[in-house]
Structure formats: C-alpha cells, structure tokens
Amino acid sequence: MAVVLAGRPNRGRLREVSDAEWEALIDVAGVPMAARVAWALAEGMGGRGPLVVVGPSQLSRHLPERAVVVAPKEGLLENLEEGLAHFARDDVVLVAAGDAALLGGEHVEAFLKGVERLGEAELWYSIVPKGEVARRFPGMRRTFVRLREGVFTGGNLLALSPRVFGRLKDVAERAVALRKSPIGLARLFGAGFLFRFLLGRVSLAEAEATFARLFRIRGRAVVVPYAEVGIDVDKPSDYRWCTHHLAGRGDAHG
Prior knowledge:
Elements (H helix, E strand, L loop, with lengths): L1 E4 L21 E2 L2 E2 H12 L6 E4 L12 E4 L5 H9 L8 E5 L7 H14 L4 E7 H7 L8 E3 L2 E11 L4 H13 L4 H8 L1 H8 L5 H12 L3 E5 L12 H13 L6
Parallel strand pairs: 1-4, 1-6, 4-5, 7-10
Antiparallel strand pairs: 2-3, 6-9, 7-9, 8-9
C-alpha cells in the first residue's frame, strides 16, 4: 500500500522546461513524471496493496491498473493527509515524492527491506550516502548533511502509520513557521543539538532520538545505497540529468 504525492502546480522553475499545468504531468523521457514513480512503487511492492496518487486526474490513463487518483489539496502536508485517509490507522504506508523520476522497482524494494530490517518504529525515512550520488551522477548538485556516520542526502521514500500523522503535522508546521528564525529553531530543536548538527557531530541515533522527542514518533533512518532514491526533479538542471539518463537506457512506462 502506497501514496504518491503529485499535487504541486507547475508554477516554479520547471516552467522553463514544460508548460504542463502540474509538475506531475511533465514529460520525462516520454512518460509523465509522477507516473514513473507510481510504476516503480507498483513493481517494488510486487503488486501488494492499493496505490493512491494525490495529483491531477490526467494521470489516470498512465498509471498501473489498481492505482486510484485523488484530487490534490493546497500543500504538501494536506496532500499527505489526503492520501493516508485511504488506509487504516495501523497500516504501514509507503510514501513517495511524485518528482522522483529515476526511481525503479529495485530501489523501492531495497527501502522496504530496510524498513523490515529495522522494524520497531512508526516512521521510516530514506537517506542516501553522498558517495553513491557522486558515483552514479558525478557533478549533479544535491543538498547534503554531515552526520557522524558520513554525509547523506535525504531520500524521496518514507513509510509511516497514518495514526502518527497528527503528531507529525503539528511539529512540521511549527518548524516551517520558524525556518527563518534561528532563535526559534534553537528553542524547538535545542541549541546544543543544532550547534553539534551544524558541525557534523550528530550521530544517526542522536538525530532519531531528537526526532522522537519533538514529534513523539519513533522514527528510523533507512540508509539506501541507491542514488536514484535521493534524486528529484525540482529545477531545469535536474530535468536535463534525468531525461538524459532515462533516454540513454531506453526506459519507458505507462
């Protein structure tokens, strides 16, 4: 069971490469971007459970047979809430960003195996080692964070139980509201934690513990050794990287 978040209007930098009304509908090597993600999830899950795509109705004809399209709301958290509403409170739901155009079934499967291996949590979030991104896509620009165990970029896959969404939403909204206030963020996360985080001295275990304290959710980071999990299309250079890569391997879905 899974959700694809594909409800962002095409009003930003990607207007340079496509005049599609929604980013999800931008053609990437012959296939709408979010449809690529949906097919990857379907393959990686091996046909288990329903698939909900929160995005424009035009995606319907490009999706796997069991996929259901749900009209998007205004923001990311609202779209996540809309997608999770289709599942039971105690389900574990896989969630993917609709602009993760390079995702394949094997990458999804690797993340799910990591979730199963770690267990004992309510939310699992993918992270990708910088070395993997540099090896697969040398020169591609990503945002990286240094932790004690290494340097990572955030992935485009997570899994969670719908029952924890309320707790997640409350603190996420506070963090977004405080994003331009260093003092406010220090109060939220703890000045000591922020200082050590900026110096790259925080371990994965410490980051997970801080997450648990803030959100009252048991969260685990899943290290996925596939650069594709950490690549999304949010600017024209990303689009060019992905279309070139996919066209080169003759990839197509939908």
